[in-house]
């Protein structure tokens, strides 16, 4: 009787171990299969379309200027691509919602943001709540949302929150930071969403961040922004 009990316990333990191993294999296989290769490929092509012509902006500006025919022609191509890409992205968002990187990868996830960021204000306002929810649910980055929040705020006539939006002054041939709310605390807000300090960020445009000087210049910046609209 004792031998039979030991054998029973052995068989039961072995069965439990095999079941656990089988469960772990199934779990790993399922995790791998959650990636949607078809959507990843589609989003990769959309991203290429979004970035390909924008990558030419700096060289066109340097060689021909912002007001040149070459620049205007390039923007026509960009706007056409943006409109076509938006149709595809809206179809994805309409069918699946804002997909996380576990489904479409990091690049695919950021492509959803890029196309919305490059759309018209009506589209941005439409999808802003969806992206906010996606950030809360871990399906989008707070740092990307911050850029969309800034762009929407400025387009609606408000000041930006995180200082992510810069523009080109055609008279001085220099970049400048568009109107920013509460400049003294901007780096606290940026840190809260995972963005680098503003001084480091604007150095990409050869700008030096001076809070006191910016506050003095803000009325001029606001006037310049209104004139360029």
The radius of gyration over CA amounts to 25 Å
Alpha-beta classification: mainly alpha
Mass-distribution shape: globular
Low-pLDDT windows of residues? 1-33
Widest sheet: strand ordering: 1-2
Distance between the termini: 91 Å
The oligomeric state is single chain
User: What is the count of structural domains?
Assistant: 3
Strand portion: under 5%
Determine the mean pLDDT: 89
Question: Could you give the count of β-strands?
Answer: 2
Helix fraction, binned, reads over 70%
Largest sheet entry = 2 strands, antiparallel
Count of individual helical segments: 10
Report the order of strands and helices: HHHHHHHEEHHH
Keywords: Signal
Signal peptide: 1-31
Organism: Chryseotalea sanaruensis
InterPro entries: DUF6624
Quick overview:
By secondary structure, this protein is mainly alpha-helical. The chain folds into 3 domains: 1-33; 35-140; 141-229, no CATH class.
Key terms:
3 domains, two-stranded antiparallel ribbon, disordered N terminus, 229 residues, 2 strands, mainly alpha, 3% strand
């Amino acid at each position: 009787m004792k031998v039979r009990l030991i054998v029973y316990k052995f068989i039961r333990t072995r069965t439990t171990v095999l079941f656990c191993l089988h469960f772990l294999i199934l779990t790993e296989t399922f995790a791998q299969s959650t990636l949607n290769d078809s959507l990843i490929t589609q989003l990769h092509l959309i991203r290429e379309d979004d970035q390909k012509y924008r990558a030419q902006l700096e060289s066109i500006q340097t060689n021909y200027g912002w007001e040149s025919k070459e620049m205007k022609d390039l923007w026509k191509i960009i706007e056409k691509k943006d409109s076509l890409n938006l149709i595809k992205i809206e179809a994805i968002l309409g069918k699946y919602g804002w997909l996380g990187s576990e489904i479409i990868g990091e690049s695919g996830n950021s492509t959803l943001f890029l196309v919305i960021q490059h759309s018209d204000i009506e589209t941005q306002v439409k999808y802003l709540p969806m992206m906010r929810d996606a950030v809360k649910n871990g399906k989008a980055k707070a740092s990307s949302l911050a850029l969309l929040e800034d762009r929407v705020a400025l387009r609606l006539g408000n000041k930006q929150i995180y200082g992510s939006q810069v523009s080109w002054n055609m008279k001085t041939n220099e970049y400048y930071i568009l109107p920013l709310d509460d400049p003294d605390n901007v780096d606290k807000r940026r840190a809260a969403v995972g963005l680098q300090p503003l001084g480091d960020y604007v150095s990409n445009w050869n700008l030096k961040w001076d809070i006191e000087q910016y506050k003095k210049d803000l009325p001029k910046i606001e006037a310049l922004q209104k004139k360029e609209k």
